[in-house]
Amino acid sequence: MPCSPDYKGYCRDFEKEARLNKNVQKAYKEASIVDIKFEGMTPISHPIPSWWEGGILACQGGGDPVRNRHLCDSIAVTKDGRFRPDTRLSPDEVIDYLQRAKNFLQAKVDNYKYACTDFPRDTAPCQHAAQLGGTLGKINRTIITIKQGQEAYLQEKRQQKIDEELQAQKRQDKINEDYRIKEEKAWTAKRNKTLLLIGSLFLFG
Asked: Which of 11, 14, 117, 137 has its CA 20 to 30 A from that of 62?
């Protein structure tokens, strides 16, 4: 919305400022929720716990997961579908936590960017926005890695189900084949017995 200079030559958009502040308050409220599962941590106090970042990637040759993510595979989800760095948590619980942290930081970044480029055009908010942007990048990468782990886990489960169904079908096919052979042998034995009886009647009339 166009505005006219009203304070030392600055052009302030009061509606945008109010909207940005409202977004921060809303995101803060959502990020402040304390869940006993996280042992007192909140997305505000610990936007991305350092021990969550470690142990979710397996890299070829032990490479650096930050520089060489294309050489790494997600191991964020265990064989039983839990979050590897903290198996008390499910991947969805961790993603929800990180998403709330992301929303809060993004709202703060938007506020800082406004203060940096519009009003009051101070250098400090610019630096804050850049710092929080780095944390947002880590959060985004971690969410992507967890989702990749979830997909790998679900794919493995789907393949496992297919394999189990194939094995069950093979067992059923064997049962059916064994029954067919048994019936065929019984029919052959009955036929031979009948032929012998007919032959005996013919010979000894």
From this structure: 137
Other beta carbons within 10 angstroms of residue 30's beta carbon come to 15
Q: 90 near 81, Cβ under 8 Å? A: yes
- As a whole number of Å, the CA-based R_g of the chain is 34
Q: How far apart are CA 19 and CA 21, in angstroms?
A: 5
CA distance 74 to 53: 11
Q: Specify the amino acid at residue 116.
A: C
Phi, psi of 127 (to 5 degrees): -65, -40
Amino acid of residue 187: W
pLDDT surpassing 60 at residue 200: yes
What per-residue string of b and e applies to 64-75 under the rule 16 or more CB within 10 Å gives b? Answer: ebeeebeebebb
68-82 tens-digit pLDDT: 666 688 899 999 999
pTM score over 0.85: no
**φ, ψ of residue 77 in degrees (nearest 5):** -115, 130
Residues 77, 122: Cα–Cα separation, whole Å: 43
Check: CB of residue 147 under 8 Å from CB of residue 64. no
Distances (CA, A) of 114 to 11, 92, 192: 11, 33, 98
